[in-house]
Amino acid sequence: MNRAEREGRVKIVPIDRKHPVHTVWDLGKAVNNPIWCFQIIPGEPGPRIVDFYRPEDDDLEQWVLWLNDKGYNGTDYVPHDTVTGLQWGTKRTRIEMLRGFGRKPKVIEMASLQDGINAGNVTIRCAVFHKVEGISDERTERIQTGIDGLKNYRRQWDDELKTFRQNPVKDWAEHIGSAWRYMGLAWKEVKI
What we know:
By secondary structure, this protein is α/β, with parallel strands linked by helices. Helices cover 34% and strands 19% of the residues. The protein has 6 helices and 9 strands. It has helices at 2-6, 60-70, 94-100, 113-124, 138-152, 172-186; strands at residues 10-11, 22-25, 35-39, 48-53, 76-78, 105-107, 128-130, 155-158, 163-168. β8 and β9 form a beta hairpin. The longest helix is centred in the last third of the chain and has 15 residues, at 138-152. It is globular. The protein starts with a helix and ends in a 6-residue tail after the last helix.
């Protein structure tokens, strides 16, 4: 992320209404299910990060309403585990619920943690992120939360083995980083 900032790729990024806004989710359990909102614009090398949403509750319907209110109605890229396990307190999976709410979920193929991290790193190198300097802009504030999460997504050091552990630290940034890993695996599939 520091490189993206140095290269001027954190800047005002308008939403181009001629192109759909797609989403990528880390759709886990209960709260802390971040959603990156992005566009693919012909001629641009990577995704435009136009918004970020981190729901404060576990109401999937409210998340969908938020996305619909913003006009973010492209494809919803979701992790492979959304097709298994029932949604909190229902007899339907999360992907069935998303379809029932009129969304267009697409399951991201399963990949190793390291492949996802590598794809996420490659994506950071070509993405642009919305930010307005010096003005209180709600989109900027939401995306800044995502950027802060990416900056804090890390592996834990193992003092005994004198090496980093394979899995990321399980803290507030882990789900944001996981959603970004899925971004890295999904955005190139978008049909223009």
